[in-house]
DNA sequence: CATGAATGAGCGTTCATTCAT
DNA sequence: TATGAATGAACGCTCATTCAT
C-alpha cells in the first residue's frame, strides 16, 4: 500500500461511492434478489455498511434509486410510441418494453408483493409513474375501438408484471402468456 | 440396519405425529406463508422440532406433503368437469377451482419461484400432476374449436398461478386478469 | 451404545446452563452494569447467545431472575425483624439490609431509572415485593410514635436505593446519608 | 470565564461555532440525556461533527463546558443567600436551587456514576465548585447551632443530587425525600 | 479551520439444524 | 423414536471517530 500516487481515495467521491453502490445494488439485486443482505451490497461496492445506510436509509430507497431512471424512461416511452404508432400497436410495443424491464429486474416483483413494510414505498413509485403512462395508451386504444374500455391500468400493469418475471426471453419478446393477455383486451 | 422385514405397524403414534404435523403445517402456511419458522409448525403440531425434521428433512418435502392431497383432488376434478360440462365451460370452471387453490396457498407461488433450492422439488410436483389435467381440458376445448390449440398447459398453469396469488377475491371468482387471459384463449 | 458411564454432558443440564447463565449474569452485571452486551453474558456462561435468549427472552427477565431470590429474602426479612425487635429498630435494621442489597447490585438502580423499556417490568418487581414489606415496618414504627406517619414507602424505598448505590461500605453499614434520611423520619 | 488567557482574536466564527455548540448541547442534553449521539448535537448546532470533535475531543469536556456557567452561578449563590438569610434558611434555599439544577440536567447524575471514563473529569468539576459553596453554608448553619456539624458537604451534595434526579416537581420545590434529608440535618 | 462522508466494530435478535437424552 | 436445549452464523442497524477535502 501507500503507493506514492493514487489520485484515488476520497474527495467528491461521495458521488463515486453512490455510483458504486447503485451499480453494486443492481448487480446484487440481479444475483440474489432485492432483499439481499445489506452487507453484501456494501461489500460488492467496496464500501462499509455505514456508507450504504448513509445514502439509503432504508431498502425501499435503494431499490427505488436503482430502478428509478429506468422507470422514468419506460414511462416516457409511452408518449413517444403513441406519437409514432397506431394506438393498439403503441400499446403492444410499450407492454413489450415494460415486459423487458420487469424480466430484467429479478426480484422486483417479489419485493412488490412481499408485504414487507420495507418496500411499502415501491408500489406507489411504480404505479405512480407507469400507471398514468399505461392509462394513456389504454385510453387511446379504447378510443380507437381496438380494445375494451373497462381495463384498470394498474391491474393490467401488475398482471403483466406478474407474468413477466419469468422467462427473460432472450429476444426481448413478451412471453406467450402476456400475448394471450393482450389478446384478451381486444374487442370482439 | 435396513432389515428387509417389517411391512407392518407404522407405530400408531408416529402416524399421529405425522398427521398432526401436516395439519399444523397447513395452518401455519396459511397464516404465515410457506417459509414460516420450523419451530412454529412443530409447536402448532404439539411436537418437538426434531420430530418435524425426522419426518420432513427439508422444507419442500413438507410443503409437497401438505399440498399433495389438494393437488390430487384438483387434478381429479378435471375429468369430472369434462364429463359434466361442455369443454370450454369445463376449462373455465377448472381454472376457477385452481385459482381458488392458489389464492388460498399464501406464499406457495412465492416459494415456487424463490429459487431457494429447498423448493426445487415443488414445481415438478405441481406441474406433474396438474399439467396433464389441464392439458386434457385444453385438448378438449381446442378439439371443439372453442380455443386455440397452441397453448402450453404448463405455461398457462404458471400464468394463472402468477395472476391468482393476489386478491383472494372472497367469492372465489377468478380475478379480472385471469378472465382476460381466458378470453385470450378463444379462437377469433 | 448407551454406555453405562458419563453422567456428563447434556441431560438436565438445561438446569446447569440456566445456573451458569444466572451466575454469569450476576458477575457481568457487577462488572459492567445491567445493560452489558448479551454476548458478554453468554460467553461468560460458556454458552451461545441463543441459549441466553431461550432462557430469558428479554433483559428484564434476566435481571429479574438474577435478583428475585434476594428480593424475596429481603422482603421476608421484614416480618422477622418486626417480630424480634421494637418497630423503629426493626425498620433501621431492615433498611440496613436493603441498603446492602442495593449496594451489591451495581447498575440495578441505574437500570431502574434508565427509562429503557427493556426494564419496564423491573420497578414493579421491586416495588411490588419490597414496598409492602417496608410499608409494614413504617406502619409499625408510626403506630408506636417513633416516626412520622406521612411517609410514602415507595418513595422512601427509591430514595434509599438512590442513596445506596454508592459506597458499598465494606462493613455493610448504611452510609451516612441514609442514616440522615432515617433521622429525618423521626417525630420531633 | 474571566480566564487570564488568550487576549488574542479567537476567530469570530470559531467563537460563534463554540457558542452554537454549547447551546445545542444544552438543548440536546435536556432532550435526550448527556449521552445523546454526537451527531445530534452537531446537527442541532448547524455544524459538522468534525467541528464538535475539534472543540471537545471528548464528551466530558463538552458536558463540563455546558454546565460550567450554571455551576458557577449556583456556587456563587451560596454567598448571596448567606448574606441575606439566616444560616439554616440560606442552606435550605440553596439546596432548593441546587435541586432545581440537577432536576433540569436530564442524565447528568447518570453520567456521573456511569463509570464511563469519558466522564471521569465531571465529578471533580462539580465537587470542586459546589463543594466549597455548600461547605460554607453548612459551616454557618452548624455555627448557629441549627444543624449538626459532622456532615461532609461532598456526601451531602451527592446525596441531594441522587435524590433529585427524579420528579422534576414543577414548582421547583425539592421533593419530599430531600426535605426528609434536610430534616435529618437538624440538631435534635 | 470546518466539513461530513466513510468506516467498521458492535449490538440485539432470529432461526435452521444438530444431537444428547 | 421423540424431544427440545443448544449452537452460532447471519442480519439489520447505529454511532464514535477519523480524515481527505
From TrEMBL, chains A, B, C, D:
Keywords for this protein: DNA-binding, Transcription, Transcription regulation
GO molecular function, one term: transcription cis-regulatory region binding
Domain of life: Bacteria
Protein name: AcrR family transcriptional regulator
Membrane-spanning ranges: none
Keyword Acyltransferase applies: no
InterPro entries from the UniProt entry: Homeodomain-like_sf, HTH-type_TetR-like_transc_reg, HTH_TetR, Tet_transcr_reg_TetR-rel_C_sf, TetR_SbtR-like_C
DNA-binding region boundaries: 37-56
Pfam families named among the record's database cross-references: TetR_C_43, TetR_N
Domain HTH tetR-type intervals: 15-74
Nucleus recorded as keyword: no
Amino acid at each position: 500500500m501507500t503507493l506514492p500516487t493514487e489520485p484515488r481515495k476520497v474527495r467528491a467521491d461521495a458521488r463515486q461511492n453512490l455510483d458504486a453502490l447503485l451499480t453494486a445494488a443492481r448487480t446484487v439485486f440481479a444475483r440474489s434478489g432485492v432483499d439481499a443482505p445489506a452487507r453484501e451490497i456494501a461489500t460488492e461496492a467496496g464500501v462499509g455498511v455505514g456508507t450504504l445506510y448513509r445514502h439509503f436509509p432504508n431498502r425501499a430507497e435503494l431499490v427505488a434509486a436503482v430502478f428509478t431512471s429506468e422507470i422514468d424512461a419506460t414511462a416516457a416511452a409511452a408518449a413517444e410510441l403513441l406519437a409514432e404508432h397506431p394506438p393498439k400497436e403503441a400499446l403492444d410495443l410499450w407492454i413489450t418494453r415494460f415486459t423487458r424491464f420487469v424480466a430484467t429486474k429479478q426480484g422486483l416483483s417479489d419485493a412488490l408483493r412481499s408485504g414487507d413494510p420495507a418496500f411499502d414505498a415501491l408500489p406507489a413509485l411504480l404505479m405512480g409513474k407507469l400507471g398514468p403512462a399505461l392509462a394513456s395508451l389504454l385510453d387511446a386504444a379504447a378510443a380507437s375501438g381496438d380494445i375494451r374500455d373497462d381495463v384498470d391500468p394498474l391491474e393490467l400493469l401488475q398482471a403483466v408484471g406478474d407474468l413477466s418475471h419469468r422467462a427473460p426471453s432472450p429476444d426481448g419478446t413478451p412471453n406467450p402468456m402476456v400475448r394471450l393477455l393482450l389478446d384478451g383486451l381486444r374487442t370482439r
